[in-house]
Amino acid sequence: MPKKQVLIILLSIIFAHFAHAQTNITIKGKIEFPDNRFKIEVTEQDNFNTIVHNSIDANKDGSYELSVKVERPGAYTLNCQNQERVRFWAEDEDLIINFRGRDTARVHYIGPTYVHIYGGPNNELINLFNWENYLHYWTGASASNVPYKTPEITDKALVQDISGKILKILNEDHDKRIAYLVQQYGDRNSIILLLNSIRNKTELHDEVIARLERKNPDYPPLVKYKAQRIEEKELKARLEKGQPAPDFSYPTPNGKENLGPHSFKGKFLIIDFWASWCGPCRMEIPNLKKDYETYRSKGVEILSVSIDKDESAWRKAMKEEDMPWSQVLAPDTGKDILKTYQFSAIPHIVLLDKEGKIIGENFRGKILTDKLEELTNTSVNH
């Protein structure tokens, strides 16, 4: 049976089930330091679309209570007045979620917080998952920064190398911890949220899928996950090395032309997906400038693709960064291009050969420089 027919059948099962499987859950709690300029909002991410299920004002004392009609069981997000947010499993558990709210500390740290969910078995697992991700973020941020603050290490390349190795060790440890959670809690519905984190552990991943299928083969989140996996595999196959890069055509800042991979045939092309609000993206720009200055005369071009929602913020960042290469703005905060090129974090860099075929992705810093040196030397020799 063709893959498209399989997808249609799977999605039909989901929608048929949704038609008669709706429940209402209640979420309540208190915000210690409320900022009542903003609302409390429950959202669901459907691929690259954000669905708002409910949005309310907190009471003056910081307490709140809201009801959510769960048409699709799965991972939802509770956003507390744009100060904190937490992912939870929405199905049949009423929840109590308290927030600190507005940051009153003298020193502000930008990054995730941990918010505990009082609920049932499904959200007990989500707590463990959220906690592991919280620890991993802050441990990585602290540990990887140590080489940069060590005055005895003066070689910048060595600093980057040590920092990268620290992050690699921490990432491997984090993967093992998530795998342990999956092994121990693989019979809970909310385990589906963790499956993306263990896709490289094929045996464990498939074992959990089989366990869930034995429990309830028509469970909508499971059916949806399997359908998405089929679609992702098809999209990933189009992004393998040697495949023609998916084309797009987006407007330049002056609006006089549209550019995409097709515009740079005959050149090695660095496609840099970024945004004005992305700190790591902007930290990478000096490296790109050095590479552009060194390799432009050797046939290398750069196309920066912004996924900014705010066009004025994009223009302001371009002016501040003064990037001397081509710039375009993807519409709808890049929803289509995120899906087409299968990435969810930026900066995301894709490198194309002179025929517009994919060489690889996630090249940054010295790794990108070394690859460009290899490509341009090989090109000259031939």
UniProtKB/TrEMBL annotation:
Record Gene3D superfamilies: Glutaredoxin
SUPFAM superfamilies from the UniProt entry: Thioredoxin-like (SSF52833)
Record bears the keyword Disulfide bond: yes
Keyword Disulfide bond recorded: yes
A GO term from the CC aspect: cell envelope
Molecular function per GO: oxidoreductase activity
Localisation: Cell envelope
Gene Ontology biological process: cytochrome complex assembly
InterPro entries in the cross-refs: Redoxin, Thioredoxin-like_sf, Thioredoxin_CS, Thioredoxin_domain, Thioredoxin_ResA/DsbE_sf
Annotated Thioredoxin domain residues: 239-381
UniProt keyword list: Cytochrome c-type biogenesis, Disulfide bond, Redox-active center
PANTHER family: THIOL:DISULFIDE INTERCHANGE PROTEIN DSBE
Protein's UniProt name: Thiol-disulfide oxidoreductase ResA
Organism: termite gut metagenome
Highest classification ranks of the organism: unclassified sequences, metagenomes, organismal metagenomes
